[in-house]
Design a protein that fits this description.
The complex is a heterodimer of chains A (280) and B (433). Chain A is built from 12 helices and no strands. Chain A has 280 residues and is an all-alpha fold. In chain B, 44% of the residues lie in helices and 16% in strands. Chain B is globular and about 70 Å long. Classes of the chains: A mainly alpha (280), B alpha/beta (433). At the A-B interface, helix 2, helix 3, helix 6 and helix 10 of A face helix 1, strand 2, helix 3, helix 11 and helix 12 of B.
Chain lengths: 280, 433
């Protein structure tokens, strides 16, 4: 145990590094929040301040006035939740089978999963577009959900395989020895241990779909169907000119669902990940 | 590169899946057109939506649906939509983005469709920006354009005693350099006469370069385009380079900035002048602190006077649209002189149409409209917008070369070598027969 002990200066250094990292991570979000509440003159000030001197809700009013943010958020929510649920539902059994039954096929499948993550969006978008068109799923949120599921499935599968492998096979063998059948073992022994992994994977799929822009831009044709990231670009003009205040306000609102989902589920993920990590 | 991957993928996908276009006749007899607009400022979106509403109210048999697009992603989105046979019927874009689509057969040649009124109202120099190919097809209606002007802090300028330029008597590039020296000297330490936001240095250099007679791209007798860097081409880049690297009358720090990024410094009096697109006036009018006085000056001139290059905003019709006549009828309505004025005011730009440009509201001194309107006649097609291979030349050769030159990292000889030698190598690949 002595090897784990660190000296006081080293510990201070670790905390300082952690703090610096947290500040680095939080900076864009905090700046976004600050910008969202600044009036136009403060946005154009040469000496920007963290806390707005004269905070205003005008940017939010303007953002809602100019763009259908609520409708777009609803579309995003439907697409992201559906994509997360379907991706996890499909990936979980696949991950279990691939992780538990190692063989050439499983290895090849794993390799393909890894390789498929390297495909750029632009390489797949036109074939996908044509396939969805033939299925009459252009301009359909369901079509978009299908794309999101396909897009997030490989990584979801990969993540879940790791979680499945982390569950000791001996536990399942012990259950079998105690007389539990395969289904009972999966439901009563393996599944509860996989819950944190499933939640984490669902979060990943949700956030990926919630933030996705290009597929939504290309596949959804009518304004009523557009998702939040697409609508956010409507605050941008040519050559990167931006309507900064309303854009920041809308972007701040767009990050809230992800933050809420993380806040609600974080305890469950970390709690589940740590459960059983040490012998009692 | 990304475009090439998209095009290759598109071709492959079409081979694999087959391509069908559903030109079904409308079941209820009502033609429905999709109009994708890139308007983004509130006044502009309002003007667009209102015009669509007015059209729909008076044309129950041809209904237009307004679809909001975005400048940021329009090229990739259109490319995908064209390949998938799902493009909007009426497409808002800029003339420098049309070449690929025009050569690719995605856009309708408007020559047989355009009404005479619209054709005659827009001057030939503007039509040139949307004319492509050996058969001189017209693939869009240029309707709004934006010259580059100098936005100046009125108090600093007037109190300095320098001559204030007008469209009738603008500064020459030599005079401009001298005036920035005088101004900087009077403004005190840490302050500069001019801030050049040159995140996109190529279009600025080429478009303003026309004022000094520079054109960089030369079409040879056999139709091939080559890059030549003459003394005239060196005037504008040389002035900017000297202001930044020699005179220190322009800060190095803004060279990588966009126009909006320079505004806080402009409002704070750190810079007396900022060369910007005409439409930036809207941001300035909205964001300027109370009491801040600003004015719009014409860009400096060389041997070609007020001439400068522009890439107008355009309205095109998809080749796959089964309702081209109806779409053109909508364009004819949308671009009536009075409507063009509404669109121009909404976007803080200048209309291309002669009748719209004559509207008194675009000639007021307020917000610098008169200065822009006075320059309008001298706007010409941006030098390279119909040159195939220009995007690659711009990204791989010209952008880094101009950036390094303006910052003082390379000299004029090296700039010339890169633009010409490296540049012609790039263009040659696109012009092999």
């Amino acid at each position: 145990m002595s090897a784990l002990r660190t000296s006081r200066p080293a510990r201070i250094g670790q905390y300082a590094a952690l703090l610096a990292y947290l500040v680095f991570l939080a900076f864009p979000f905090l700046w976004l929040v600050s910008t969202a509440f600044k009036p136009a003159p403060e946005l154009a000030s040469l000496h920007p301040t963290w806390i707005p001197k004269d905070p205003t809700l005008d940017n939010f009013r303007q953002a809602f006035d100019e763009q259908p943010l609520l409708r777009a958020a609803a579309n995003s929510l439907v697409a992201a939740v559906a994509a997360a649920v379907i991706a996890v539902a499909v990936a979980t059994p696949l991950a279990y089978v691939t992780a538990r039954h190692r063989g050439r096929l499983a290895s090849a499948a794993t390799g393909w999963v890894v390789i498929s993550q390297a495909f750029p969006f632009v390489l797949v978008i036109i074939p996908l577009f044509l396939i969805l068109k033939n299925l009459h799923l252009i301009n359909s949120v369901f079509g978009l959900v299908l794309v999101y599921v396909v897009w997030s499935l490989p990584f979801a599968l990969w993540m879940l395989m790791g979680y499945v492998r982390a569950v000791p096979a001996e536990l399942e063998e012990a259950a079998a020895v105690d007389g539990a059948g395969r289904l009972r073992t999966l439901v009563s022994v393996t599944a509860p241990l996989l819950v944190p992994g499933i939640v984490a994977t669902a979060l990943f799929a949700f956030v990926t779909a919630w933030n996705e822009f290009f597929f939504a831009l290309v596949l959804l044709k009518t304004p009523e169907k557009q998702t939040l990231p697409v609508v956010l670009t409507h605050f941008l003009g040519a050559e990167g000119v931006a309507d900064l205040g309303p854009l920041a306000a809308a972007a701040f609102l767009a990050t809230l669902p992800s933050l809420v989902v993380f806040a609600v589920l974080q305890r469950r993920i970390t709690g589940g990940m740590l459960a059983g990590a040490v012998k009692s | 590169m990304r475009r090439r991957i998209l095009t290759l993928t598109a071709a492959l996908a079409l081979l694999l899946t087959g391509c069908t276009t559903g030109n079904d006749a409308p079941e209820d007899g009502v033609v429905r057109l999709r109009f994708q607009s890139l308007a983004w400022q509130k006044e502009s979106v309002d003007a667009n939506r209102q015009l669509v509403k007015e059209w729909n109210a008076s044309h129950p048999d041809v209904q237009v649906e307004y679809v909001q697009g975005s400048w940021d992603s329009v090229h990739d989105q259109l490319l995908t939509s064209f390949e998938g046979g799902e493009a909007p019927d009426i497409i808002h874009d800029a003339s420098d983005d049309l070449a690929d689509f025009a050569y690719g057969g995605d856009l309708a040649d408007l020559r047989p469709l355009l009404p005479e009124r619209l054709r005659a109202d827009i001057p030939a120099r503007s039509w040139e920006t949307t004319t492509f190919g050996s058969d001189k097809g017209v693939y869009g209606v240029p309707f709004l354009q934006e010259p580059r002007v100098i936005i100046a802090n009125r108090k600093i300028l007037e109190s300095s005693g320098v001559r204030v330029p007008t469209p009738e008597k603008p500064w020459t590039w030599t005079e401009f350099r001298q005036i920035t020296r005088d101004l900087t000297r009077g403004m005190g330490p840490g302050r500069y006469a001019v801030a050049w936001p040159l995140k996109e240095p190529v279009s600025v250099s080429l478009n303003l370069g026309l004022s000094a007679g520079g054109q960089l791209f030369h079409r040879e007798a056999d139709g091939r385009v080559t890059v030549r860097f003459t003394e005239a081409d060196a005037v504008v880049p040389g002035t900017i380079h000297d202001q930044v690297a020699t005179d220190r009358t322009a800060p190095r720090t803004t060279l990588g900035s966009g126009g909006s990024d320079t505004l806080p410094g402009f409002f704070a009096g750190k810079y007396a002048m900022v060369p910007l697109g005409f439409a930036y006036r809207q941001q300035i009018a909205q964001q300027a602190p109370e009491g801040f006085e600003w004015t719009v000056l014409p860009a400096p001139v060389g041997s070609a006077g007020l001439t400068q290059g522009v890439s107008p905003q355009t309205l095109s019709i998809a080749e796959d649209s089964p309702y081209k006549k109806e779409a053109v009828a909508f364009l004819d309505f949308f671009l009536r002189p009075e409507n063009m004025v509404r669109l121009a005011r909404g976007d803080w730009m200048l209309p291309t149409g002669a009748a719209a440009l004559a509207d008194p509201s675009l000639h007021t001194a307020r917000d610098g409209w008169a200065t822009g309107a006075a320059v309008a006649e001298r706007l010409r097609p941006a030098p390279a917008q119909s040159v195939r291979g220009y995007p690659e030349w711009k990204d791989k050769v010209a952008t880094p070369a101009f950036q390094e030159y303006y910052s003082g990292a390379i000299d004029g000889v090296e700039l010339r070598r890169r633009l010409v030698e490296d540049g012609n190598r790039v263009l040659a690949r696109y012009q092999r027969k």
